[in-house]
Design brief:
- The chain is of the alpha/beta class.
- It folds into two domains: 137 residues, Alpha-Beta Complex (Aspartate Aminotransferase, domain 1), CATH 3.90.1150; 239 residues, Type I PLP-dependent aspartate aminotransferase-like (Major domain) (Aspartate Aminotransferase, domain 2, 3-Layer(aba) Sandwich), CATH 3.40.640.10.
- The chain is 37% helix and 16% strand.
- It has 13 helices and 13 strands.
- Helix 2 runs antiparallel to helix 9 and helix 4 packs across helix 8.
- The longest helix is centred in the last third of the chain and has 20 residues.
- The chain is globular, with a radius of gyration of 20 Å.
- The protein starts with 13 loop residues before the first helix and ends with a helix.
Length: 385
């Protein structure tokens, strides 16, 4: 029998679909089910990693809260996006990946039964971490349209703020690719002030923005510097998934509590990875700009290939959603047909939000080049009609 804290922790679905796709051992299978990436990390970061593998100082538990080079780089990076200054000694701690940082922040902010505001749809792993930390997810809808996703501001205004201890927001959101406009961030900030709650910014993809959209960091809004906690990651923007490095930047008192949770959880980060991530964070913007341009080309290709299925355009990130309910299917049925009939691996969004999430199928475009994505529309028609 499972313990009670796991009672509401659900499968995310990616693990099953990835195992099925792996079992086929077929290079013709399009791998659209998982947030992997085929664009290489910055070359300078790879070289620093190679050198660190032979560095005795990197083969250590210490320092527990991250090497100075990375804490400085992360604090400076968040400061640039937020137009704020952060003290790397007291307002930054390094974590073993972004999601480890999210869990540690939740452990440092929630009492059992506290509500956490999230968007719907949302990554199932965020919902599960809220539950593991003793929190209760409270969902505010993202509204789909032919032009993309928008935050439901009326629904947000109607939520009782009193039980909410934190708002856990991500822009671009995963899996939808929704990007908050300034007015939406202001509405979230207003809610946090009314609730007197924390704003946890999952910033893993904040610069992966399409069509020249600007970065809007919530800590840059009036009065939000000491209410916003930024959790960043090397996995998406820097394409350094296997390095397992993230960071938490925010008010000193809270970061001290996050550090206490962190040292009681994963203890420390990957020693040979930290200087490499610091190097990558200091790369010129052209490195990321080129990657964003490639991801946007793939997005545009998918939107064209799948136009008959009305995909909801993402404004950033690595994935898009299709509502398969007009086909008389739920997402699990559609995913099974696509894999068995058309060699396309895609993840159903069951448990990725409220009841309506089961109608959505997620397609990841970060790990397959355009030449392999061409013809996806024909595969869809062969599998789904």
């Amino acid at each position: 029998m499972s313990v009670s804290r796991l009672a509401h922790v659900t499968p995310i679905g990616v693990e099953q679909m990835a195992d099925l796709a792996d079992s086929l051992d077929d290079p013709e299978v399009l791998r659209l089910e998982n947030l992997d990436v085929d664009l290489r990390p910055p070359a300078a970061a790879v070289e620093v990693t190679r050198r660190a593998a032979g560095d005795d100082d990197a083969n250590s538990y210490l320092p527990f809260f991250g090497r100075e080079s990375l804490r400085r780089a992360a604090a400076e990076h968040v400061g640039r996006q937020a137009r704020q200054r952060y003290d790397w000694r007291t307002e930054c701690v390094i974590t073993a990946g972004g999601l480890s940082g999210i869990l540690n922040v939740l452990l440092a902010t929630l009492e059992p039964g506290d509500e956490v505001l999230l968007t719907d749809p949302v990554y199932a792993g965020l919902l599960n971490r809220v539950r593991l930390a003793g929190g209760v997810p409270r969902l505010v809808p993202l509204v789909p349209s032919a032009g993309g996703w928008r935050l439901d501001l009326e629904a947000l205004a109607a939520i009782d703020p009193r039980p909410v201890r934190a708002a856990l927001m991500m822009s671009p959101s995963m899996p939808s690719g929704a990007v908050f406009e300034r007015g939406e961030w202001r509405a979230v900030a207003d809610f946090c002030r009314r609730a007197d709650c924390w704003l946890i910014d999952d910033a893993a993809m904040e610069r992966i923005l399409f069509d020249r959209r600007p970065v809007i960091h919530p800590a840059s809004l009036p009065g939000m510097r000491d209410r916003a906690i930024t959790v960043g990651s090397a996995s998406k923007e820097l394409r350094m998934i296997g390095w397992r490095v993230g960071w938490v930047v925010g008010p000193a008192a809270l970061v001290a509590d996050v550090a206490r949770a962190s040292i009681s959880n994963v203890v420390c980060q990957t020693g040979i990875a930290m200087d490499a991530v610091a190097t990558a964070l200091r790369q010129p913007p052209a490195d990321l700009d080129a990657c964003v341009g490639e991801w946007q080309r793939r997005r545009d290709l998918l939107l064209d290939e799948l136009r008959d299925y009305r995909p909801i355009p993402p404004h950033g990130g690595w994935s898009l959603l299709i509502d398969v309910s007009p086909l008389g299917l739920d997402a699990a049925d559609a995913a099974e047909r696509l894999l068995s009939r058309a060699k396309v691996a895609a993840t159903p969004m069951t448990h990725w939000g409220g009841e309506s999430s089961a109608r959505y199928l997620r397609l990841v475009f970060s790990n397959e080049p355009c030449e392999r994505l061409r013809g996806l529309g024909e595969r869809f028609r062969a599998a789904l009609g």
